[in-house]
Write a structure and sequence with these properties.
The protein is of the alpha+beta class. The chain has two domains: about 260 residues, Zn peptidases (Aminopeptidase); about 210 residues, Alpha-Beta Plaits (2-Layer Sandwich). It contains eleven helices and 23 strands. The strands form six sheets. The chain has a six-stranded mixed β-sheet with strand order 1-2-6-3-7-21, with helices on one face. Strands 16-17-18-9-19 form a five-stranded antiparallel β-sheet, covered by helices on one side. It has a four-stranded antiparallel β-sheet with strand order 4-5-23-22. Helix 5 packs antiparallel against helix 6, helix 5 runs antiparallel to helix 7 and helix 9 packs across helix 11.
Length: about 475
Amino acid sequence: MTHPLSGLEPKLLWDHFAALAAIPRGSKNEAAASAHVVAVAARLGLPAKVDQVGNVVITKPGTKGLESKPVVVLQGHVDMVCEKNSGTAHDFTKDPIRLVVDGDVVKADGTTLGADNGIGCAAALAILESNDLAHPPLECLFTIDEETGMTGANVLAPGFVTGRRMLNLDTEEEGAVYVGCAGGVDTLATTKVERTKPTAALSPYRISVTGLRGGHSGCDIHEGRVNALKVLARAVTEAGAVGFAAATLDGGSKRNAIAREGFAVGWLDPVKEPEVRAALAKLEADVRSEAGRFDNPVNVGLERIDAAPDPIAEADLARIVGFIHAAPHGVLGWSPDIPNLVQTSTNLAIVETKDDVVSFSTSQRSSVESAKKDAGRMMATAMGLAGFEVKQGDGYPGWKPNVTSPLLGLAKEVHAELFGKEPEVKAIHAGLECGIIGEKYPGMDTISFGPTIRNAHSPDECVSIPSVKNFWTYLTAFLPRL
């Protein structure tokens, strides 16, 4: 198999990752990826089961001398977050990810890479295909739709897997073993707007907020990265003071990603264009100064366009922009037990205008269930005060750390033997499927580890090539010890 990663080691893992990258597999569009996994099993002569939503489990007997050992579950999710830069031509429903080797990392050309969690799935497929690795009996579980609600894990049926030891391959820091994660809930809002007619003196314009890093709303929420929706509200307010009448506000694209870009279409008297440009230039300079090294330099632009919907009525626009200004975003609390771990956060993720309806998507996370519920209640209250119709999902549970886990003890031992030191034992503020799977299959002993992946959920996503090799070394040395 020839692909841009053909020269990398471990070859089998990179081959499988390249094959997955060629398959469109955005969340809720994973049918082809699930079918690919089943086809790999058929080619290898291994049994595979598929449930009603597309979760797949492939079984492989233990190798010689390990046949009678307890089953180990290797788990990852086949879907990926689909984000691209505004100038990138890419259709995530049909185009393959364009892979690029850049020094010691693999990245994509203007889009998310899908290393989250394509690398974990590729590692499991490579172990299934390998005929020279020792391991106990395996059940490789490939779930769907982890990124937009964990709906695959939520419908796992009793008996779909039988193992009670699980290695989740979905964390993003080499040298760390994770034993806990946050739970989450989505809080959504919609509101209808009235519109007015623009006067003959006005022309259509678009304000744009671009250039920001975005990132994972769990892993990166504490890094001070700028939320494009917050900047967009400031831009609309500044331009509105000069006479800009907004007709649409749109920005962000995923509930679990920090908004990177935002756009407002509206109307402006061309005579006032220089004054608006000056106001937006000052805002751009202010935000750059505020963010400093925490983010890329933001670009706040104004361009004349051919057409725009009628302006949103002043009172409705004030409610919408006022909510963006007031809505909480970022870290709400730190863990009192684990140093430098965010305990609770909220992400103002998406604003979207369709016809006469403006909608918002947000997500709240916490490793403490009561704090998660309170954060969701806080966001719902703010939406209600703005006069929005609010809808909140059931959410998903966190994964409570078990520092006495037998798997964790062995993980420390093997890591020390291989690399001369024990791994860091951590919990992650992102959501993992481990908590849900643990509820579905009581008694499951779980740890999670993976290679170093940076800027997941953004077009800057990349995976460290040396860390993938170390991840593979660790995984393949760990399995025969189980």
